[in-house]
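worker-3 :: picked 1-deoxy-D-xylulose-5-phosphate synthase
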Amino acid sequence: MGAASAGVASHCYGKIGAFSHKVQLFGANFPPRVEFPRTNLYPSPASSISSKEIVTQICSLPDSGEFFPEEVSTPILDSVENPMHLKNLSLKELKQLSDEIRLELSSIMMKTRKSFKASLAVAELTIAIHHVFHAPVDKILWDAIEQTYAHKILTGRRALIHTLQRNGLSGSTSHPESEYDPFGAGHGCNSVSAGLGMAIARDLKGKRERIVTVISNGTTMAGQVYEAMGNAGYFDSNMVVILNDSRHSLHPKIEEGPKTSITALSSTLSKLQSSKSFRKFREVAKDVTKRIGMHELAAKVDEYARGMVGPPGATLFEELGLYYIGPVDGHNIEDLICVLQQVASLNSMGPVLVHVITEENRGVENNPKLEGAYKQHEGLSSSDDLASRMHRRTYSDCFVEALVIEAEQDKDIVTVHAGMHMEASFELFRDRFPDKFFDVGMAEQHAVTFSAGLSRGGLKPFCIIPSAFLQRAYDQVVHDVDRQRIPVRFAITSAGLVGSDGPMQCGAFDITFMSCLPNMIVMAPSNEDELANMVATAARIDDRPVCFRYPRGAIVGMDHSICSGMPIEIGKGKVLAEGKDVALLGYGSMVQNCLKARSLLSKLGIEVTVADARFCKPLDIKLLRQLCENHSFLITVEEGSIGGFGSHVAQFFALDGQLDGKIKWRPIVLPDNYIEQASPSEQLAIAGLTGHHIAATALSLLGRNREALHLMC
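worker-3 :: tokens ->
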């Protein structure tokens, strides 16, 4: 076949200079309670640790002054109040700015004890995006919130960045917070869909702003990304998708294989791919061959071109209809700006995907401040004192311990984990049973149906998904599990309020949406012992699906014994304390606050019954009738939305005629609004779920309003 050649020239940013290449196009392509023994897990005596030292973190961090003894000097960053101030900075100044952003974020990371590593990795990329594009006119959308902190700093929020998720800045991108955040993001995988919607709206309104979306490795595990990309390719509307490839993998063995490398050639080819001339040449070549009736040849020529210029896997995005450019060194500002300038100049060329390679530990080796911050967040400190610090165990710790015990007795038990991040607690099961632990990442829909398949194959899957992320897989829960009555055991983590993660990861709705399913058993433990019992119970249910929820954070008890459980009777609650005046029926973790309310009320001479419902579905009908028969006042308490446990109790009371008699019942649930980030105790107070709020509600029912008001003051 004959060969054709084309001269392609591209002129890039200032000192980058111009380059000219001749490209040979070779004919075809480019590129629930029982006493049981407990084993001591931790040899160190708990009494040796003060209450202040018993915290929910895995280990304590040294004072930030150990790594940042002096104020960080950031002269360039100090001069940047908004993205417009980036426009006139030289390349040297832009490079210095990226270093200063890393120092700033690292300093904040040490003080707040939150990891900003993902944002550290995209310092140059964030700068390049804001240098080339004109936000807020141009719309810049992010999938992963962990990558947005440099963006927040550059868009006028630097002074408040230390308040992130602490009654200050939102943990996610938020349009009410800043005009530079055109769309709210948090759970990932939504930016391409939202960006495409904005692009279509722009086209229909005859506007010209650019749409830029930034996605990550984690979000590419979610099917919505590919649905959106395919649709973007179909509509062929102008938008830029930037894939930030930080080379993360769920499976270390995969990471040991070859990675997409950045070389001088790939850098040059990325610039070539992004050039207007090359784009136009491809379109013209395809059009000519189609005009002369050579449609198959046109397709082959374009396919060959895509495969030759792009790296392996580039054609996946091209087949979805996105023009692939890359890989680009995500820490080379010159290349980033050059490629993004070329992309920004393209008109009527459809969706483009720019593949950017970044590293989270970039610049750490030669910077002791960054290295110290990284080591603390990776648990790699050389200080023996840090490793020896005791920590208060979490519900997840107890869940995994109980699950390991069950798995050692039942070889059919396997686990499927889904969500953005895996808690360190789950490493115990993974290390003990590496062939029975499946972490699928941000692929909750797949996790649910995969678990159903495992069950149909004769195994006993525990599907572990945070409450907020289970929302994404509800259709699969309904049709692939509950409707078919397949015994999948859902362990719903991070249930209820989640403190600094605010409404984005709040698990408010799972009681409601799981308890309305006909075949689902729904339960919640009041403490770590009950959690272990429910794990044992779930392991023995093999005729229907079951779910149990537990909150984020520390357990109720103060000991450090391994949690092992005994099966409990399905639909059976229990009375923890008896009184004659008021009955408090708690569900899940709120049982503990009911006990606190009982203590407060007892000081006022009020005798209170506290019961642990354990089950939302099936309800303990006998217990409910007993509480109504023996009390005139009943309060149900749950850390969930309207429509949950209290609604099931109301439905039973109404049908059973209990509300026709003497009983006065009040439900306490989460308010019908989203609760912003705050400390867990502050969020409970806002929601009206503290022991004082429950006690005040009881006093109001008893007609003792003055005492109720005094209790809340």
